[in-house]
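Lecture notes, part 5. Sequence design as translation. It can be helpful to think of inverse folding as translation between two languages: the language of shapes and the language of residues. The source text, in structure tokens, appears below.
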């Protein structure tokens, strides 16, 4: 296995130009960006293969994360979008047979959105393809190293969230 990657070449190019460049910071951040871009492309391919748009997948995933049943206001909060935007998304997903809307048993003015089997299959199919690639690239590390990487990234994420 090679001991250098394309980011090492990137850092080497920039060191003479930016003398106070920290090669470890530049290397880590550039690698995070490149891995994120790689996984984004994998996701886009998986969604295209499943005939899903990103906003459809995100909405199905938010619904799946609530065990397949939620109020539109909960989905809007989970997705960080306006409630009327969720309505438009749900219209499209309903037309495709991916979700059902039913009146709430507690308050007939409210609606509950449920993931259908077709919606669950579409969501899990796209998620599965992404998961395969995530596991493939992280197999470069043993289980202890994966846990360490996750712990280190958590610390960095906590620092980023402080702003």
């Amino acid at each position: 296995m090679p001991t250098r990657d394309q980011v090492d070449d990137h850092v080497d190019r920039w060191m003479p130009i930016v003398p106070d460049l920290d090669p470890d910071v530049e290397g880590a951040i550039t690698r995070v960006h490149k891995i994120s871009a790689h996984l984004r492309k994998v996701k886009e391919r998986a969604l295209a293969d499943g005939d899903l748009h990103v906003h459809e997948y995100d909405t199905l995933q938010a619904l799946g994360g609530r065990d397949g049943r939620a109020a539109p206001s909960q989905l809007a909060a989970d997705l960080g979008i306006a409630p009327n935007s969720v309505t438009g998304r749900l219209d499209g997903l309903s037309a495709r047979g991916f979700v059902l809307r039913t009146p709430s048993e507690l308050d007939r003015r409210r609606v509950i959105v449920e993931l259908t089997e077709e919606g669950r299959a579409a969501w899990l199919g796209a998620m599965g393809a992404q998961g395969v690639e995530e596991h493939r690239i992280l197999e470069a590390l043993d289980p202890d190293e994966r846990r360490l990487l996750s712990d280190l990234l958590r610390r960095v994420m906590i620092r980023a969230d402080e702003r």
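The translated text above is only one of many valid answers, since several sequences can fold into similar shapes. Residues 76 and 86 are 6 Å apart (CA to CA).
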